[in-house]
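Data availability (excerpt). The following record was deposited with the supplementary files.
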Amino acid sequence: MTPQAAARMAWCFVLLCAGTTAAADDAVDPGHLSGLVTDERVAEISGMAASARHPGILWVHNDGDHDASLFALDESGKVRAELHIDDAVNIDWEDMARWEFEGRSYLVVADTGDNGGLRTELTLYAVEEPQALDHADLRAPLAWRQRFRWPDGPRDCEAMTIDPESGDILLISKKRVPPELFRLRRTVDPDAVATAERIAVLGGVDQPSDADLRRNPVYGRYRSQITSAAIDPQGQALVVLNYRIALVYPRAPGESWRDAVGRAPKPVNFPWLPQAEAISFSADGHTLFIASEKVPAPLIRLDVVR
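Predicted structure:
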């Protein structure tokens, strides 16, 4: 048996156990294993976005200190292409989003990780999604760069998404309690440094219990920290991910995100992952995909909870 086959069998067992547990509680959606990422080029998945141009393709990127590249995965977890971005640097890439503007599909990457709370300036990189994946090794010029800072000093941020209607960039702090929601307006000036605006805090993000902290004093502290975010293509729901659950904040027509995230979110459960770091809606908004940062990385598929 190959290592890939053994890893897939192990994760199928995990999902089977999760599904058995879920049968006692209809509110739990255990999801299922869509695929398994075993390609060593994708060693630390930290952001994900569904393709608008290529059905069944999910774009992902690695965490910091890797090449400035995006990888096109199919839903089985196989790498179909690598896209190198010119004039971009991966200091600490943490999330990505797809944004359609003036008939073009852009992939936007958030270089916003800051474990030490030291960075005074952050960057978003945007590249136009390639029209074809007919080569395994692709290269594209940088479409635009967005430089920005926080309004009141450095903070870690691993979650970024874009409102498909307004084009507003939404960012969520990782280590603050409760998590903060920021809005950033896109600028076209590559030399301008914008300031993100704090607009809300996220409601209903349960913090680690005493039992969590006793069971694992180190990891237990991190279980509720937000590691990724996505908005569905219709702009009707924001989903955020932490290491143990996904939380969906529905938005009524005409409602602001400030108001939407103030209500209790709807939980979406998924099987245990070593380090859940990336979440994305499918291109039609009917499905959620979740990936882990550790290879072999399971690719979990779940029905959307509205």
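Summary of structural features: The two ends are 41 Å apart (CA to CA).
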